Amino acid sequence: MKKSNTIQKLTNWEHWPSPMFYLPNLPYAFYLALRAKHLAFFSATNPCIKSSGNGTESKYETILLVPKKHRPKSVLVQPNSKFKNILLALEKENINFPLIAKPDVGFRGLLVQKIVTEKELKNYLKKYPINIIIQEFLDYENECGVFYHRNPNENTGQISSLTLKHFLSVTGDGTSSLKELILKDNRAKLYLDLFAEIHKEKLDSIPKKNEIIKLTAVGNHSKGTQFINGNHLITKKLISTFDQLSKSIPGWYYGRVDLKYNTFEELENGTDFKVLEINGIIAEPTHIYDSENYTYLKALKAIRTHWKSLFNIATTNHTHFNTPYKNPFHFLNEIIVLKKYTKKIRHLSK
Known about the structure:
By secondary structure, the chain is an alpha+beta fold. It has helices at residues 2-11, 19-22, 26-36, 59-63, 83-92, 118-127, 178-184, 192-198, 236-247, 264-269, 296-321, 328-348; strands at 74-77, 99-103, 113-115, 132-136, 142-149, 158-166, 169-171, 212-214, 226-229, 254-261, 274-279. Strands 9-6-5-10-11 form a five-stranded antiparallel sheet. A four-stranded antiparallel sheet has the order 1-4-2-3, with helices on one face. The longest helix is centred in the last third of the chain and has 26 residues, at 296-321.
């Protein structure tokens, strides 16, 4: 089975490793750096976020930039905090179980977990002695990623990517176990190890006929969530909503907003949606991973197009608003520290 899954991932570029999307584009990145006359020009893109969002920023500090009505209730937990104090903090913020726990620094769904009980939370915090964000679990019907960018000299920006997220689920037939249902699904079986861990207590149970079992509550590609190109849904009204969001966060001009909503009309009008997180300069236009409606070469081109927008924003901030470029060595050191941190918490998760 593992050999079959490996072959399927190799033959479908959607599952290829990140270097396959960035190494071919490196010459273009160096070209932009030459034009900017600085290797870390992109560090001036989002002045309100540490290093413009290179992955080392605090997600807790970043989510607090979002207007209160559009952000989930959140608590930052530091290592070795007394558990009773954590529970008091959750009670104060009116955060109830189930809830979401995730690292304050992290990406690609690393260690993001839905927590159902106090015991689970206590074990999670004990296992991962790092800064952790605890957020309310948002029971909205839909989730998507919206990539927005706006030049600081302009009042109106662009939405260049809208990714709809389809959470994997299986439907019971009254005779097959949950594990058997997963193995029968061409996409779900690729993430068998992940789902076996999430549903380990009911893997051998037999769901009722027509019972729908949602396999994951975390909308990350690495967690099996299918990304669907929703660019046809981009409208002037939606862009206006994100213009308002951008202007309510002084210093944020470029990145992907991952959010939850119930109806697209509510999202489009800006009446009801919640921002899960804002990703800065390392954000991807995730619609490119819809391999059924996109091609690998078009994906590479989309990345270059976004980098061109990033270049225009960063150089405008630097030239017209005196936003400094970060020292390339300091920027590189942050990435090295991040790599060590990521390696450490991946080791903890084993």
